[in-house]
Automatic annotation (TrEMBL):
Pfam families in the cross-refs: HsbA (PF12296)
Top-rank lineage group of the source organism: Eukaryota
InterPro entries referenced in this protein's UniProt entry, alphabetically: Cell_wall_mannoprotein_1
Species this protein is from: Hypsizygus marmoreus
A Gene Ontology cellular-component term: extracellular region
Name under which the protein is recorded: Uncharacterized protein
Length: 165
């Protein structure tokens, strides 16, 4: 681990990348048909999930390296706004995984649902670590909002993961 510090601009850029990659994942899930999907389409969903997870992990690293902390009120508010903007897309991704489970199970190559369960578990863990880092770095004035956002994400991930259990 290096001693290089990050800035709030790095964190905001990370969140913008996470937003874009969450949208990409959402679009790949929506594009997967309810019947007749291909292994290539399913692997695209998987690859998009892995890419998103890596970006969330980078965001966590950057939040932890950001100086100074806690974030200012303005920076914290900007991050909270980005998080709230992302929430409907995360919900769409997780709903998509639930709705398309039968379509993923119908693929001729088994193991796709197990792969997606792992992807969901990894994304959940990454999201939790990211949100925890943001909560630690935030001023008290936004901690309750970030904690509520994290709780909603945790609950939504739990539902999707349970469907794949």
């Amino acid at each position: 681990m290096s001693n290089i510090s990050a800035t709030i601009a790095n964190v905001e850029a990370d969140i913008n990348t996470i937003v874009a990659q969450t949208t990409t994942l959402d679009n790949s899930i929506k594009a997967f048909p309810l019947t007749g999907g291909t292994l290539a389409e399913a692997l695209a969903v998987h690859n998009n999930a892995v890419t998103l997870g890596n970006s969330i992990d980078k965001g966590t690293t950057d939040v932890k390296a950001t100086t100074p902390t806690p974030f200012s009120d303005a920076d914290g508010a900007a991050i909270l706004t980005l998080g709230k903007t992302l929430e409907p897309t995360i919900t769409s991704v997780l709903t998509g995984f639930v709705v398309k489970k039968a379509a993923f199970q119908a693929l001729p190559l088994g193991g796709i649902p197990a792969l997606f369960k792992r992807d969901l578990s990894n994304l959940s863990a990454s999201t939790t670590a990211f949100m925890d880092a943001l909560i630690v770095a935030a001023l008290a004035s936004i901690v309750a909002n970030l904690t509520a956002l994290k709780a909603r994400a945790d609950a939504a991930f739990a539902v999707a993961i349970a469907v794949y259990a």
